[in-house]
Amino acid sequence: MAMSVATKLQSSICEPRAVLGPGGNRVKVSEGPKHKCEGLKKPPQRPRKLAPEIPESDVKKNVSVDSSCSSETSSTGSSPKTASPRKTVRHIKRFRPPKLVSNDVVKPDGPPKRCEWITANSDPHYISFHDEEWGVPVYDDEKLFELLVLSQSLAELSWPEILTKRDIFRNLFDNFDPSSIAKFDEKKLMSLKINGIPILSQQKLRAIVDNAIQVVKIQQEFGSFSKYCWSFVNQKAINNGVRYGRQVPAKSPKAEVISKDLMKRGFRCVGPTIVYSFMQVTGIVNDHLVTCFRHKECDANAKMDVKPENENLVTCFRHKECDANAKTNVKLENEKSKDILK
Fold it and tell me: From CA 24, how far away is CA 83, in angstroms rounded?
């Protein structure tokens, strides 16, 4: 009995147990562990092609070439350890001669850029008037009175129409001599016609005669009509520096001041708008656009006209003498006043 039990135990130990799968079927136990690498099979390797044998003569030639190249590189010192320093290239600045700036205004090549109201279709008289006269400072009494009359005519005519008839205006008004126009009578006024048509309305013609009489009075009071006109701006032109045509005003506070003073003296048809156009034409105001080629020219003309007067005052040998005499006279008067007080 004991032997049979022992043999049964040995048989139970030696025999592997049956394992149930999830479906209830019996699965045989593998006899030994299988390596995972056994399932992966390496692809068959292709046989390598052997390089063709090089003849000994070619090998000797290559060796000689390599030795010559190495000798050249060693002689030039191109090895990484002993690298030659980089050459720093200095950019030498070329000397440019200074630009010589002259006082003369250089006119640009081609058609110059003018104010916006001057176009390619504008009247030739109007273009030349803009390029040569409009905005240039005027100091001549007859020229000032002429431009005042033309500015008054703008209420009935345009600038192109006035400029085309300018020679006729000069002939009828005796070259705008104020003393001569002041003597016009009624008969002379009625004869101021072009082809039987009055050059201006009766109101404007009578205003011109009355204004000429007042200009003669101003010449007697101030010495000249020019001094009177320029005294409102301290003998210095106003530069508005306008960039666009829409910024140019029709009148200004200064024009209103001049208009009121003229009316007090007996002038007629001299409203603020007429006075301002008169200031623009005579250069009292520089309303050329900044982009216009005439802007700087008129400004330069205004400065040149002012400089000679100041230079004569300072450079004259009597300037310092009179100034010294004035100072000594003041000192003497102060001493006398002190003596009186004592």
Answer: 82
For residue 303, with 0-12 CB atoms within 10 Å meaning exposed, 13-18 middle and 19 or more buried, which class applies?
A: exposed
Residue 311: predicted pLDDT = 41
CA–CA separation, 242 and 248 (whole Å) = 7
Kindly state the average pLDDT of the residues 40-61.
58
**CB neighbourhood size of 166 (10 A):** 13
* pTM (2 d.p.): 0.57
Q: What's the CA gap between 105 and 299, in Å, rounded?
A: 11
Pairing of strands 26-27, 19-20: antiparallel
Pairing of strands 285-286, 238-239: parallel
User: Are 299 and 283 within 8 A, CB to CB?
Assistant: no
Cα 20 to Cα 26: distance, rounded to the nearest angstrom = 5
- 128 compared with 71, residue with greater pLDDT: 128
Q: How far apart are CA 210 and CA 189, in angstroms?
A: 12
Give the pair of three-digit tokens for residue 142: 């007859």
The Cα–Cα gap between 199 and 205 comes to 9
- Both structure tokens of 39: 């399932």
- Convert the pLDDT of each residue in 194-230 to its tens digit: 888 888 999 999 999 999 999 999 999 999 999 999 9
Question: Do 326 and 334 form a contact (C-beta atoms < 8 A)?
Answer: no
Spatial contact of 288 and 239, defined as CB atoms under 8 Å apart: no
CB 162 within 8 A of CB 150: yes
- The whole-angstrom distance between residue 158's C-alpha and the CA centroid of its chain comes to 32
CA dist 180 and 212 (Å) reads 8
The beta-strand segments (E) located in 5-98 are 19-20, 26-27
Furthest-apart CA atoms within the chain: distance in Å = 179
Q: Which tokens in the block code for residue 207?
A: 């205003």
Burial group, residue 65, by CB count within 10 angstroms (0-12, 13-18, 19+): exposed
